[in-house]
Amino acid sequence: MSRFHTSVVVPPDPSLRRRSAHKWLRTALLIPFLLAAALLGKEVTSQEAGGPILQLTIDGAIGPATVDYIERALETATDRQAHLIVIRMDTPGGLDSAMRDIIKLITSSTVPIATFVAPSGARAASAGTYLLYASHIAAMAPGTNLGAATPVEVAGFSPPGSKEKEKDQPSSDEKGADSSDNAMRRKVVNDAVAYIRGLATLHGRNADWAEKAVREAASLPAEEALALDVVDIVAGGLPDLLKQLDGRDVQVQGKPYALHTAGLTVEPYEPDWRNRLLSVITNPNVAYILLLVGIYGLIFEFANPGAVVPGTVGAICLLLALYAFQLLPINYAGVGLLLLGVALMVGEAFQPSFGILGIGGVIAFLFGSIILMETEAPGFGIDISLIVTFTAISALVFIFVVGMALNARRRPVVSGMEQLVGGEALVLENFSSEGQVSIHSEIWRATTAVPVRKGQPVKVTGIKGLTLQVEPVATAHKESEQ
Questions:
Q1: Among 68, 197, 353, 392, which one is most buried in terms of CB atoms within 10 A?
Q2: What is the fold of 417-481?
Q3: Could you tell me the pTM of the whole model?
Q4: What is the tens place of the pLDDT at every residue in 351-376?
């Protein structure tokens, strides 16, 4: 018995076909969105990771050159889209004006800035404490310290506590005598306190200790600063700092900024030639030397016109000194006394006054040099040994050397043709207009306006070419008496 198999063909369901087509259509439409999302996610990740990490170095007193260095570094960081700036700092302090300029740059930066007091043994004293408080991240290495942020003496007054404690109950006479001085002291200190408290509030740090650092010149080592919430991190070095910063959120211009420092390249940012030159000439000792060399060069050029070298060197040095003084806190009374001292010493050389002008010049020069810098900020004073040395050199040069040169010029000429003028000659023959005379065992042609006889002594009154102009001695004596 055979079996027959019958196959039944079922026609496709149109609804299934439509669903399959819709599925493929949705998939095709989703692909561009998925690709865009992937690219967007990649872009966000790269923005978070950012560019390189720029490492800056502040080593020494904070001044105009430091401001220029930080400003250029921030411009470079912005152009290169740097992810982070790390400032390795070791400073005793510096100028208040320079410190405030740098703080303005830090607070307006679109790139987060981590200030790192390092290596061990470094410090962030005075102005350095303010910079640490202003930074987005404040970090210190073990064995470092910060503080002593009391404003130093400025313009003849010192803040309370910087030299001696004020009395709790001053007498009425004392109140009347120094009330304006105390008011100025309080004004300066209160301004500094308000400033550093504002910086502390900006980044959520310990504002009470910041005020103590200003009023009492308090200092802290790294570990205590971390415990008191004065700094954010204590790190053993730059690699440790970057490791601790990875994944941390900071506020940059009021907006959250996620730090992703793992694997990023650290690039040192070195000062360029302009910044190095600025750093050299804004050193108060160098600026002082440039000023004096400029003054000396111009004086010697005026005394010896045509020498060229003293005038050229003096003009260049004087212009560099004036540019440096424009950036430094200069007391113009000191500049005036210094110039007066030079003028008096030069006057002593030209018009001897038994030392009165010279002594006055030395005193004015010395006091002018001492008060030339209008600040006691660390690193911005003129070394007293340099002042004494240049005072002695100036007195020696202007009073003795220039004086001896002037005396030498006043002496009669004893060599050359010029020494013949004023000398006596002997007439060798009778002549009324032109003839021969003998002087210093030499025979010269001579002319006269008065007839002379052989053997008659005559006086040489001038030289024209190789011919002497003579006249009888008696006539010359009469003219000198008249």
A1: 68
A2: OB fold (Dihydrolipoamide Acetyltransferase, E2P) (2.40.50)
A3: 0.69
A4: 766 667 878 888 999 999 999 987 77
